Amino acid sequence: MPQPTAGRILILIKPDAVERRLVGEILRRIEDKGYSLTALRTVTPTPGILAEHYAEHADKPFYPGIVEYMTSGPVVAAVAEGQRVVEGVRSLMGPTDPTTAAPGTIRGDLGRDWGTSAIQNLVHGSDSEDSAAREIAIWFPELAG
After folding, report:
1. What does the pLDDT average to over 98-127?
2. Nearest to 140 by CA among 34, 7, 12, 29
3. Catalytic annotation on 124?
């Protein structure tokens, strides 16, 4: 019987997590769950790359705050692979709002509301395999396909 193909997800460790020196802890949790990190780089996002990444939000009132937040410092971009990786990593991250994220999740254990215009919630993970393919092509064009 053929083995199912492992999925991929893009993970962005956001400027607040980098500044707070939580990169290792976040990556450790993902690896401890059994997922493989197959690409990793540190980058300071440009408004252009963020316009591609957040294209569906460009006309929303919160978009300028996201761009300001995401360009405020370096981001660690990673690709993880494994069975049901999108579902698994998003479960590890917890809900978007760090105040209501359950203990045991990345956002629940390490995040909080800082009262800023954009939610500083430490980490982004693609919400579907289709989104992952699109986002990986933006942040890791050499892996597109």
Report:
1. 91
2. 12
3. yes
Q: Which two tokens stand for residue 114?
A: 């800082």
Predicted structure pTM score: 0.92
Provide the CA 66 distance to its chain's centre, in angstroms.
13
- Alpha helices, H only, 20-127: 23-32, 47-53, 63-70, 85-93, 106-110
Question: To 5 degrees, how large is the angle CA 56–CA 139–CA 45?
Answer: 80
Q: Given the residues 11, 124, 135, 139, select the one marked as catalytic.
A: 124
On whether the CB atoms of residues 14 and 122 are closer than 8 A, the answer is yes
Q: Are 98 and 113 in contact (CB under 8 A)?
A: yes
Cα–Cα separations (whole angstroms), residue 29 to 5, 32, 80, 93: 22, 5, 12, 10
Mapped onto helix, strand or coil, the DSSP state of residue 36 is strand
- pLDDT over 70 for what percent of the chain? 96
Dihedral of CA atoms 116, 104, 109, 33 in degrees, nearest 10, equals -90
In this predicted structure, the answer to whether residue 118 has a pLDDT above a threshold of 80 is no
Token couple for 112: 């909080």
Q: What is the pLDDT of residues 66-91, one digit of tens each?
A: 999 999 999 999 999 999 999 999 99
